[in-house]
Amino acid sequence: MSTDRATTRKRGRGQNDPGRPGRIVRAAITVIAEHGVEALTHRKVAEAADVPLGSTTYYFTGLDQLVRAAMDEVARRSVAQLREWEQELPPDAALPTALADFVVASATEQRKYTIAEHNLYTVSLHRPDLRPAAAAWDDAFAESFIARTDSVTGRMLGTLTCGLQMQVVLRDEKPDRDKLAAFVHRALVGSVA
């Protein structure tokens, strides 16, 4: 083994590797996105994170802890992404078009995270310990829409956005931006008589 490689390996071990827990969580998200929560194992996560198996069990003694950490991370990232999107949106932006663009980006550029988000969100239905995190995620997600509309409309747009994201990642074809914008427009103006 070369001296450079030995130095790299030594630097990446134990307390000298403070980023390891985060890499393990991100690897768990990748495994969940590719195979689903039910396929999550310490071994698969260790391989994806390129860490020894013992590291995953050191930081996360059970898979439930790892699932919770993954849920917290995708929720944090999802809400941060939406807040950044909302802050960069001009005050006079056409909300249906802007939201359609957000959903398209979620299904294309951010596809892995969107799939993991929906996997973890669905798991919370059967795991009471994850439900408060899922509910808090819903509330935080709606805040960006409430800032642009009102409480009821903002919550409706949050729910619609989640539903549209799930629908577009279930399909292999490219999302239809105009169709998505039409859904949001209809939700904002109400149904036709």
Which secondary structure elements does this structure contain, and how are they paired or packed?
Elements: H1 3-11, H2 20-35, H3 42-49, H4 53-59, H5 63-88, H6 95-107, H7 111-123, H8 131-148, H9 151-170, H10 177-189
Helix pairs in contact: 2-3, 2-5, 2-7, 3-4, 5-7, 5-8, 6-9, 6-10, 7-9, 8-9, 9-10
Number of strands: 0
Name of the CATH superfamily of the largest domain = Tetracycline Repressor, domain 2
> From the helix content, strand content and strand pairing, which structural class follows?
mainly alpha
Mean pLDDT: 87
Overall shape: elongated
Tell me the β content: under 5%
Unreliable residue stretches = 1-12
Task: Offer a quick outline of the entry.
The chain is mainly alpha-helical.
Q: Can you put this structure into words, describing what you see?
A:
The chain is mostly helical and 193 residues long. The protein folds into two domains: 1-61, Homeodomain-like (Arc Repressor Mutant, subunit A, Orthogonal Bundle), CATH 1.10.10; 72-193, Tetracycline Repressor, domain 2 (Orthogonal Bundle), CATH 1.10.357. The protein has helices at residues 3-11, 20-35, 42-49, 53-59, 63-88, 95-107, 111-123, 131-148, 151-170, 177-189. Helix 2 crosses helix 3, helix 7 (111-123) packs across helix 9 (151-170) and helix 8 crosses helix 9 (151-170). It is elongated and about 55 Å long. Mean pLDDT is 87; it is low at 1-12.
Notable traits:
193 residues; 2 domains; mainly alpha; Tetracycline Repressor, domain 2; DNA-binding transcription factor activity; Arc Repressor Mutant, subunit A; TetR_C_31; Transcriptional regulator, TetR family; transcription cis-regulatory region binding; elongated
